[in-house]
Amino acid sequence: xxxxxxxxxxxxxxxxxxxxxxxxxxxxxxxxxxxxxxxxxxxxxxxxxxxxxxxxxxxxxxxxxxxxxxxxxxxxxxxxxxxxxxxxxxxxxxxxxxxxxxxxxxxxxxxxxxxxxxxxxxxxxxxxxxxxxxxxxxxxxxxxxxxxxxxxxxxxxxxxxxxxxxxxxxxxxxxxxxxxxxxxxxxxxxxxxxxxxxxxxxxxxxxxxxxxxxxxxxxxxxxxxxxxxxxxxxxxxxxxxxxxxxxxxxxxxxxxxxxxxxxxxxxxxxxxxxxxxxxxxxxxxxxxxxxxxxxxxxxxxxxxxxxxxxxxxxxxxxxxxxxxxxxxxxxxxxxxxxxxxxxxxxxxxxxxxxxxxxxxxxxxxxxxxxxxxxxxxxxxxxxxxxxxxxxxxxxxxxxxxxxxxxxxxxxxxxxxxxxxxxxxxxxxxxxxxxxxxxxxxxxxxxxxxxxxxxxxxxxxxxxxxxxxxxxxxxxxxxxxxxxxxxxxxxxxxxxxxxxxxxxxxxxxxxxxxxxxxxxxxxxxxxxxxxxxxxxxxxxxxxxxxxxxxxxxxxxxxxxxxxxxxxxxxxxxxxxxxxxxxxx
Length: 583
What we know:
Radius of gyration: 25 Å
Helix content: 10-25%
Number of helices: 11
Largest sheet: 9 strands, mixed
CATH superfamily of the largest domain: Glycosidases
């Protein structure tokens, strides 16, 4: 049985002649936190290739992984991170059975054990490029918003969950017109806006500026189709353009009226920003060969897909739940399990949990979705989905503990454009939404990731900042309104979000000691380390996933000119290892 440990209020080192004296306060009632290391400290497993799954889940590798001494394990949902649908089992039904397409709901029936989980690209991602590198698919069509964010499913006015597309031209360009090719359903009430300021999509650092509606940018009773809108007489110089939609035609898309989800939300085939020439013709914004390509961020994506959108290459797989739970990797402890939420359905999530419970596998916690901040999801939208999924899962088992939002690793509050009340805190608005709907009890814990340092800029001095960074972010979530009764959990963590040399040196060990100590001193509840994996390729960047992942860094920052006593670490060999590692 694990010992109960306590962090004490005071532990002061006082200099003495030739020695130091440590004073420890053991006064009853002065302990600032308690934890059970067998349940509060663990590791995680993420996406692998089929080959690596076959290598990891062998007795020797399992033994090596468990020898690290961690307790519970959390299962990471990389498929949702990559803007794709996952089929936790292929045993299930499509909403359009005849064509094997639509919205897939898996079956909780116990059949053959599940060894691998497949990802499916989303055709209705369309032109969207926001978030991490999307799982590529052969059938990209048009962008369509998530039907579960419409009044039919939220029970609220669509004006409370406006959907949007942001055109990021990567540099300021003159804009006085926009061309929109609508699909169905289309926006009947929408407005075209431009950004005044910088960093409109930087939710980590916080956008600096505001959205303004073009002089002729507000439309009502719009009719869809291909439209070219004159927005202003004089072009406005801006980098970002936003189409903000609040009322839909509710006309059905190309998949037909048999499924109501085909007939709600918004769908766009193409957007282009530009100007009008002397004859009044539309001229798209010009790009030189050395300029970055225009990208498109979107508020949500319809999880509709088809059987032929599967990624069956074998290079991108999740571990099947039967293999995961029966392998020994869970250390005979309840595991934290994810459900896909941003790109799934509540019925499928409920079926997944029902399956796991029918098998008798112990569930510790359930994480809802994956990194919504990295997808630029609005907190109210995430919360609306959260409540629908929570209701479905709790019908299966009302005792299950659900949480999120599974933030990317950040050192400061996540801030976005202000709402009607001027609030900019993502977490604050999420918690407020749950409170307003009388559902705060559905939030059993708050989870986030912790990757404090840029992989290519790490120095020895960074060790001093880890306690401050950890305790600060814990306090940020409390200041945002997370009740003290709701545990805070780090469910993925390491020195950096990408492989870097200092991970393999004493620096990593010293950082981990401060990381764990500061976490519990700051009131943390469960801390889970980095992923069990084969380091066959650089890990995608957490901080820059919305753009392009940087290469792994094998050296310390400034190694070529490092002054004593700082020493450069040996290069980290990014190659296939003979065994799995916990990092």
